[in-house]
Amino acid sequence: MTTNPPLASLPAVAAAAAPEGLSTCALQQLDSAHYLHPFTDHAALRERGARVIVRGDGVYLWDSEGNKIIDGMAGLWCVNAGYGRTSIADAVHAQMSTLPFYNSFFNTTNVPAVQLAALLAAVSPPQFQHVFYTSSGSEANDTIVRMVRRYWQLAGRPEREVIISRRNAYHGSTMAGASLGGMAGMHAQGSLPIPGIVHIGQPHYAEGGRGMSEAEFGLEAAGWLEAKILEVGPDKVAAFIGEPVQGAGGVIIPPSTYWPEIQRICDKYDILLVSDEVICGFGRLGTWFGCELMGFRPDLIAFAKGVTSGYVPLGGVLVGGRVAHTLIDKGGDFNHGFTYSGHPSACAAALENIRILQTELLVERVALETGPHLKACFAALVAHPLVGHAETCGLAGGLNLVRRKGASVHDCEAFASTHAVGMLCRKHMFDNGVIMRAVGDRMIVAPPLSMTVAQIDEMVERIGYCLDLTLAEVQ
Ligand code: PLP
């Protein structure tokens, strides 16, 4: 028989017992020794040491060295209401004190999950009266793959299994999420995509629209969907999925002609239309959901992130009438679900978060005040020698760093080694108190929706300074 060693002889336990007293250096060493981070080169991280973020308030973060940083990425596109919302913490505390968890299997439910389902039906487009809860965007998209295929079985068309997505899309990191996504680097590491998922090009005007107006290119890019449907066979296609604005791909804003034409094609071939609103949902583009701005009517919406402003994990699928009625009326058991589907404490956080978005008119402010201000600021940054072009939509934006500017987006000369300049710029930003993300040499922002006009000015001033520092090194 073996005996357990005394607790005190376990170094990790001892360290975990006193995290408050740890220096930045000690935290970095423990981090490097034990913590595998998402999407991270760990050998490089070991050299640098992770930056330890310890506190957030409003649109600001503080690291363990006391540096104050303006968060241009809302955590990871999610802290829509901003940091330091004690009312969300209070709502979660109250719920945890009453009923921290109960499942929604076996004919049970809980109060916050029901209240949130009704509230989501109220804030989303009218076809959505039902929700299926998950804990993340990846799980939401996995659920969508299963739900779409189940729908077509019930509709008597089980051969409709193929889902069409887009290159450079991001739909999560689970097997189905990464397969739906169009990131070559993710596919390469896991024999992906799984069968039944195919991709078309992205509606990226700067990349593919040379010689065309934006409107013409939008129609051309939507036409790739019709070509793929005909190639696969219209009888085999179950659904098309896309982000209204591609976030992780680099804030790729499609021409205004794109989504209405996608809608027309989906209608023509009777294909389900899925909007991945994990980033665009809950106000990012100045509407509650991105499909409302882009002018299409999805059958399913994936959401996560902004539903709780990231305070606790929650995601889900808004299920439109067409799919919901088939599942409910013809379906019997849908053999799918997660332990934490409808987690009461997570739903309590979402209820309070949505109340904040509503009472502070944060979505309306993005549409009328902060979004237009960011657009004007980014347009002004195009005067900088390093910025070839800039685009924004609501409170999401991107700046392309180029070696030589041109008369149009298609005439700019890119840097020879993409990534290096973007990474350099991102480092200057972080070191100078502002967070932007680099996607290749495109610098992107998606700040909290609570960011004020004055704070946008402060962020853009710091961005300009860091562009100068970057320029000085690449000239
Ligand atoms: N879909 C989109 C559009 C996303 O941007 C993300 C995450 O960034 C996901 C899905 C995956 O969400 P999660 O990381 O919560 O699994």
Automatic annotation (TrEMBL):
CDD domains: OAT_like. InterPro entries: Aminotrans_3 (IPR005814), Aminotrans_3_PPA_site (IPR049704), PyrdxlP-dep_Trfase (IPR015424), PyrdxlP-dep_Trfase_major (IPR015421), PyrdxlP-dep_Trfase_small (IPR015422). GO terms for biological process: biotin biosynthetic process; gamma-aminobutyric acid metabolic process. GO terms for molecular function: adenosylmethionine-8-amino-7-oxononanoate transaminase activity; pyridoxal phosphate binding. Keywords: Aminotransferase, Pyridoxal phosphate, Transferase. Its cofactor is pyridoxal 5'-phosphate. Belongs to the class-III pyridoxal-phosphate-dependent aminotransferase family. This is Putrescine aminotransferase. It comes from Massilia yuzhufengensis.
